[in-house]
Amino acid sequence: MEHDFAPCVCSVNRGGFGVSRVPIDLALAVTIWRLACPTTLIRDRLFWGIAEQMICDIFNLTIEAIFDRWGHLVNQLQHDAILSKIDMFCQAIHEKGAPLTRCWGFIDGTIRAISRPKRNQRLWYNGWKRKHALKYQAIDTPDGIIRMLWGPILGRRHDVAMVGESGLLQDLQQWFNDAAGTPYYVFGDPAYSLSPWLLAPYKGVLNAFEQTFNTAMSSVRVSVALSACGLGKQYAVAGILTNCHSSFYRNNTSFYFGVKPPSLRSYLNGEG
Predict the structure, then answer these.
(1) With contact defined as beta carbons under 8 Å apart, do 261 and 144 qualify?
(2) Beta bridge partners of 131
(3) Which of 42, 106, 254, 257 could form a disulfide bond with 144, CB atoms 3.0-4.6 angstroms apart?
């Protein structure tokens, strides 16, 4: 009889100084600490009693391992998991006052500031935020789960460019329709181009109906701007771990819409 036991230690290669074996729970704790606490490596060493280089090695190894195993949960829409709950998502959003009846989630571009690069600074500069940055595309659902965190791309790129490069619209067109072919859609800010699967507020001079619509959607729209190995992987793993935390303790989005998140097992298996 075969058993599939998870390893209890990870091996950290120390170059010419051999291999260190680190308990998995310690590696995860160090990684969460580094993601959550903006401390220096010197303070990390004093807290953990581990050398700075070893802390970096543990952090990078753990980020790589989590991303390799579960990165698809945020890089790609898990349509099967969403479609099994899509009517519940639509109902929860509509019951909170949204005039739309087939809106299942909210899309937004989110920006992470970076240090000013030495070369090609203008490519990374985001004029709206007035900082050098990486951009991501995020989709959130009423259960508080981040369903997509695609990126990063250059900070100057437009949100519409991310929709095209991520292949999101093709996925929505292929999967997010009912049996009669009627689309389900996500809702974003005015920067997005309209399609049957991606809606945005009315623009320009508004009449009374359009103003009322925009106000109602604004009241329910979820902000999806979130709170070594590449920074892109670190942010993606932070999104995965945030979803894991939400599976245990829920979050403001989940409580607001009254929709429970999936269990941790269901989420990590791509089922919820």
Answers:
(1) yes
(2) 126
(3) 254
Contacts of 234 (CB under 8 A, 6+ apart): 35, 63
pLDDT digits (tens, 9 = 90+) for 27-75: 999 999 998 887 788 888 888 898 888 898 899 999 999 999 999 999 9
CA distances, 180 to each of 156, 184, 256 (Å): 40, 11, 31
| Phi, psi angles (nearest 5°) of residue 190 | -65, -10
Of 18, 22, 19, 17, whose CA–CA distance to 8 is shortest?
22
Contact (CB, 8 A) for 133 and 113: yes
Q: Indicate the helix (H) or strand (E) that contains 21.
A: strand 19-23
Stated pTM of the model: 0.85
Helix (H, G, I), strand (E, B) or coil at 138: strand
- Positive or negative, the Cα torsion across 47, 14, 152, 149? negative
Q: Read off the tokens for 73.
A: 């949960």
The three-state secondary structure class of 51 is coil
- How many Cα atoms within 13 Å fall on the side-chain side of residue 98? 27
Task: Specify which residues 12 forms β-bridges with.
Answer: 20
Q: Give dist(CA 256, CA 271) in Å, integer.
A: 23
DSSP conformation class of 199 = E
Q: Please report, as a single letter, which amino acid is at residue 155.
A: G
Residues, the chain, total?
A: 272
CA atoms within 13 A on the CB side of 63: 24
Q: Give the number of other CB atoms < 10 A from CB of residue 250.
A: 15
